[in-house]
């Protein structure tokens, strides 16, 4: 359960007090069980969407056993065989393999990792099965820095990557 923005909470029994799961200060988190059911995976965003995180948490002690920090918010995680694939909003699809992060050359946001951790399945209109080892070998360059497209509150300007555009015409803005 959650209060909206902020950490997720766990209650060990009905009527028991809630316990906050690990979450960065001013961050916001989601939580799921690992594929084998032995750990909690807590993931989300830092304050002001400044970065993202994935924590592998022991469910009894709530100790963070593994931590991954990335440059943008984490929107989903799939795991299997001790490996993870992490979807981020700006940093690409990250493979967290043997404790190292790799930018994978796939852009789909819906995926699953096989129980062995050897394969990744993507579901972008068609099912594709990828070798995780091959994806790591063909690691993609990190995405170019920039901002996700967004309008100013009045809709007069559009920020797109590193360019400021007129919000009505899309032409280069003059300020």
Give me the secondary-structure topology.
Elements lengths: L8 E2 L8 E2 L7 E6 L6 E6 L6 E6 L6 E7 L3 E7 L2 E6 L4 E5 L2 E5 L6 E3 L5 E5 L3 E5 H6 L9 E5 L5 E5 L1 E4 L9
Antiparallel strand pairs: 1-2, 3-4, 4-5, 5-6, 7-8, 8-9, 9-10, 11-12, 12-13, 14-15, 15-16
Describe the structure.
By secondary structure, the protein is mostly beta strands. Helix content is 3%, strand content 45%. The protein contains 1 helix and 16 strands. It has one helix at residues 132-137; strands at residues 9-10, 19-20, 28-33, 40-45, 52-57, 64-70, 74-80, 83-88, 93-97, 100-104, 111-113, 119-123, 127-131, 147-151, 157-161, 163-166. The strands form 5 sheets. Strands 3-4-5-6 form a 4-stranded antiparallel beta sheet, with no helix packed on it. It has a 4-stranded antiparallel beta sheet with strand order 7-8-9-10. β15 and β16 form a beta hairpin. The longest helix is centred in the last third of the chain and has 6 residues, at 132-137. The mean pLDDT is 86.
